Amino acid sequence: MPWFRDPGVRVLTPPFDERPQMPRDNAGPDFIEALARGLDVLKCFGTRRVPMSLTDVATASGLARPTARRIILTLESLGYVRHVPGGVVLTPRVLELGMAYTLSTGLWEIARPHLGDLVAQTNQAASIAQLDGADILYVARVEVPKVVSVRIDVGTRLPAASTALGKVLLAALDADALDAALATPARSAITPHRRGNTDDLKAELREIRARGWASTDEEVAAGVRSVAAPLRDGDGRTIAAVNVTAITAEVSHARLIDELLPLLLRAAGAISRDYELIHSAPQRMVTPVEPVYESVETVDNSFDH
Fold first, then answer.
1. 83, 94, 124, 187: which has the fewest C-beta neighbours closer than 10 Å?
2. How far apart are CA 182 and CA 199, in angstroms?
3. Among 222, 269, 224, 218, CA closest to 242
4. Residue 125 pLDDT more than 70?
5. Is residue 275 a contact partner of residue 110, using CB atoms and an 8 Å limit?
């Protein structure tokens, strides 16, 4: 019988299991703590490829073991996790949660052929990301099989201020929105390879806004450089950013700007144009009309003579 199904056993290791759950900062009266804890449990699996035990889940999510156990049972009944030898793992059903957003924007379907072309032309990985507070969240990616590569998955978070994608997205914000984004606590677990102060960042963002693209050279991680451009809707608003990422040993910074950037800008323009065309097209829902069948008595038999 799985560890989380035994109703007669309750493992306690005070004070961890019995500690009170602290209220969250800025949680209003309508905040549903149970829902937030369930999402915390889902997120704690991260990129792990091995089963997580009850202790693993409780520790990673910061929850008491009995609370983590009840959430796991609930998620299992909904089909989001399943029991395997050694603990629990996520099921493919969790993709519904993330893909619902991606598919609702239509961005992936529009961008997919252009990202594929960009990767074929540059022989480098390409990604699309959107801003979430002080982080960027990857929503699409096309890889290139290589011996040395940068591991990024859809759903990965990185600090916006240290990535080319993030700088493009931050540069599109007005002053108040930018201050709010920079004041938001980062949820990415990545520590930037290089750091700067806020004044320097804002000065750089002004330059990025003027020229329309951003590049980084080993800022988020050693050995990685990237160039990014905005994706815009029909009103010129930045809705996402697209980039090309390269290993420094393969692509110099000069080549990144001279050769790969023009291809990236062309792809960004094509994605933006397709996005605007699709979302500006008139759309109408038509309710199918049930066919009307005449009775035999009403059929015209004038030719039956």
1. 187
2. 11
3. 269
4. yes
5. yes
Residue-wise DSSP of the chain: --TTT-TT-----TTTTTSPPPPPTT--TT--HHHHHHHHHHHHTTT--S-B-HHHHHHHHT--HHHHHHHHHHHHHTTSEEEETTEEEE-GGGHHHHHHHHHHHTHHHHHHHHHHHHHHHHSSEEEEEEEETTEEEEEEEE----SS-----TT-EEEGGGSHHHHHHHHTS-HHHHHHHHHSPP---PPPSS---HHHHHHHHHHHHHHT-EEEESSSSTTEEEEEEEEE-TTS-EEEEEEEEEETTTS-HHHIIIIIHHHHHHHHHHHHHHHHHHHHS-----PPPPPP---GGGS--TT--
Interstrand relation of 157-159 and 238-247 (parallel, antiparallel or unpaired): unpaired
pLDDT of residue 211: 95
pLDDT in tens, 66-85: 999 999 999 999 888 888 88
> What are the beta bridge partners of residue 227?
215, 244
With a cut of 90, say whether residue 203 has pLDDT above it. yes
Q: What is the CA radius of gyration of the chain?
A: 25
Q: Are 213 and 256 in contact (CB under 8 A)?
A: no
Q: Is the pLDDT of residue 165 over 90?
A: yes
Residue 110 near residue 164 (C-beta atoms within 8 A)? no
| pTM of structure | 0.64
